[in-house]
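Checklist before submission:
- one chain only
- standard amino acids only
- sequence pasted in full

Submission:
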Amino acid sequence: MSGSIEIKENVRLAPLTTLQVGGNARYFVTAETEDAVIEALAFAEDKGLPVFILGGGSNVLISDTGFDGLVINIALTGVSEFAEKDGTRYVTAQAGEDWDGFVAHCVENDLAGVECLSGIPGFVGGTPVQNVGAYGQEVAETIVSVRYYDRQQKELVTLTNADCYFSYRKSIFNSTHRDRYVVLSVTFALRKGGEPKVVYKDLIEHFAERKPSLVEVREAVLNIRRSKSMVIDAGDPNSRSAGSFFKNPIVSRDKLGELQAEMGNIPNFPFGDAVKIPAAWLIERSGLNKGFALGNAGISSNHTLAIINRGGASAGDILLLKEEIQRTVADKFGITLDPEPVFVGF
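Returned file contents:
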């Protein structure tokens, strides 16, 4: 015990992650308030310990040796709504709120802006870090501000959307200022009575010509995700994953032209002056199909982008499969696939 927080030792981390792999945390604390987060960080600094901030555990790969420092499990909860202005409702969610629970709350209250992000595992606090996105929507579209603790300046600060420098799966939280800020809450600007965003191919085809409601879009997204085992389900071994393991690579139009001259048509979509190629397509076309297994790790039989723990997998098993996929795609296409999850304790 340290002050008002309880510091535990040698806590198993695997059960706290969706991949269900990883060793122990040397020290572990559950932080339910901003003060608890600050106190835990002071404990780590006093002892000279590295710190890892753990949210919902849905986007991490923890090493078999665990983490030789302090793991702070963010457990701040609560959702509050502010005044509406010109049809925009401002909603603040604490970092430890379940993300899909928050999306459900918004949809139930007829608030548009996050409906396509239904079913994504993890906590609210992790969404600005990676600029979480799916089915044609990103959190950067609705985030107004992020409240965080600055470990360097030792103060509570609020960043505006522009200050976060959001781009594809990126923000200052996982790039230029990695490990400096601890997200405590996020404020979103949502449209009361707004129309859902239907720009993703699967959704456009699903609804054909008609205009769906927010509830219908949420249900459609959940059904699509379930069909790909991208909704956490204890009864579905394919969902024992970290979600999409690789980012869709961004390549120049010249590179795309070279590949298409050699291999024919390659699916792609515009990304500024470049194009994005679906990583799943690259993996499949390199010969690694759904259900491919390497020891206790495998590719989901429902989604090529998900690496799964087939049962009893170690972090080492997951890494070996990751490297096999990267090598095979690089040999075939000359493209390097970058992983999405955060690697901890390696």
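Reviewer check: The domain at 237-341 is CATH 3.90.78.10 (Uridine Diphospho-n-acetylenolpyruvylglucosamine Reductase; domain 1).
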